[in-house]
Every structure is written in C-alpha cells, then in structure tokens.
C-alpha cells in the first residue's frame, strides 16, 4: 500500500514538473518574440535595414519563389536595390540591365506606425532611366511586403523579411 502511494506521489510530481517546463518554454518563446519586436522597431526607427525578398508577385498574379541574394537596402537617406523583375516593360531599352537596380537617395521618406500591425515605410527612388515609388508594410516580427510602382514597368510586389545591414 505504501508503495502504491509512493508511486502515485512520484507520478504527480513528474506531471507537475513537466507542466512547469512547458510554461518556461512558452515564456522563453514570448520573450524571444518581444526581443524580435524591439529589434525590428529599432531598425525601422533608425531607418537602417535590408529587405531580403523570398518571393515576388507580378501585376498579373504570377508568383515566383526567390533564392538568390536579392535585396533592397535603406540606410537613412540613401537606398540601393538589386531586385528581379517579371512583368511588362512599357518602354523597352536596348541596353537595359533588367530588374530593378538603383543606388540613390530616398526622396520623400515617410515612416508611419500602424498600431498593432507594425510599420509602413514609403519613399521615392530615381534609377538611371526610371523613377520608383516604394511602399513597405513591415510587421512587428519583421515580415515585409514590398510594393514597387514604376514609370516604365508594371507594378510588382515582393514578400520577405527585414534584417540589420550586414558589414561588407
């Protein structure tokens, strides 16, 4: 009888220890999530981050996954982009490099906080022969939708994440 009581007590202790471990796991995940939110907020407010696209969607609805080193970098008032482009070009250039390529200043830079959703970043950039209007919707976890409207090409959107600018 004593053995049965002892076994029941041990089982209860093990079950309660397991539930404490789960709570600490949840607390760790919550803490990690809050740290990520603070990091993203700091990157956006400092206007220093790199957008890494994972997929693109054309104006006609075609979606393509990306796995190369494409990026759009915002470093306070300057910006540079190396992004692929699928879609219609309204003005064809003979020596067009293709894609969306520019390294210039970010004109009319605007950052809005969207309550619980995250942030909205808007700016204009001028490439060699085109002008781009850029809108980024950034969640508090860093997931980002990037929308680009161009004078010479159909609009395109990208989905990815932002991260800190890496030293090169």
Reconstruct the topology from this structure.
Elements: H1 2-46, E1 48-58, E2 63-65, E3 71-75, E4 78-83, E5 100-105, E6 107-114, E7 118-126, E8 131-139, E9 143-150, E10 156-163
Antiparallel strand pairs: 1-2, 1-3, 1-10, 3-4, 4-5, 6-7, 7-8, 8-9, 9-10
Short description:
The chain is an alpha+beta fold and 168 residues long. 27% of the residues lie in helices and 43% in strands.
Write up what this structure looks like.
The chain is of the alpha+beta class and 168 residues long. 27% of the residues lie in helices and 43% in strands. The chain is built from 1 helix and 10 strands, in the order αββββββββββ. Strands 1, 2, 3, 4, 5, 6, 7, 8, 9 and 10 form a 10-stranded antiparallel beta sheet that branches. A hairpin with a 3-residue loop joins β6 (107-114) and β7 (118-126). The mean pLDDT is 85.
> Which parts are unreliable, with pLDDT below 50 for 5 consecutive residues or more?
none
Overall geometric form: elongated
Number of helical runs? 1
Percentage of residues in DSSP E strands: 35-45%
| Radius of gyration from the alpha-carbon trace, in angstroms | 24 Å
Sketch the topology as an H/E string, one letter per element.
HEEEEEEEEEE
Mean pLDDT: 85
Termini gap = 71 Å
Q: Give the oligomeric state of the chains in this entry, treating copies of one chain as homo and distinct chains as hetero.
A: single chain
Counting helices, strands and paired strands, the structural category is alpha+beta
Number of strands: 10
Helix content: 25-40%
Mind describing the biggest β-sheet? Answer: 10 strands, antiparallel
